[in-house]
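Onboarding guide, step 5: your first structure request.
Type a short instruction followed by the sequence, for example:

Predict the 3D structure of this protein.
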Amino acid sequence: MGTVEQLFIAPESGEPMVEQRSVDVIEGGLVGDRYLHGAGYYSPYDVCEVTLLEAEAIETIHDEFEIALRDGRHRRNVVTRGVDLHDLIESTVRIGTAELRGTRPRPPCAHVEEVAGEDDVARALGDGRGGICAQVVEPGTVTVGDSIEVVNDDPRTVGETIAKRLGSVDDQSE
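The system replies with structure tokens like these:
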């Protein structure tokens, strides 16, 4: 479905994101990340255990705003490629040996711009380009290059699939 292109953690609030080759995912978030131990800027008010962002969004931001965010100044943990993250909200996905459940969009804030040290970062991450939040369902390890696979679709998709299947059963009985 998609793959992991980059991984980042930040040990403390306001510190630069540190790129990782692999991260351990445990209940509550990523080992070594500020939000796992309650040191994130928005702790405890608006916590995302894990944040995901599309590499394609980073490229669009570079093209449209001339802002380079591949160094982690986007303040997100997992950079993906080849998957529409908004389609994963309320779905459970396996990434590496970990399972995550998409919970909600992750819009940008003024703090991301302050930490990035560049004007317009928050605006550039707007319009649905800010990624999503995810909750840890099953601990494991995520490594750059791991595939992203849906384990359980969101309830809406499951309902549509069942309705289609029931519709085809009704069509066959006529």
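Each response can be followed by summary notes, for example: The radius of gyration is 17 Å.
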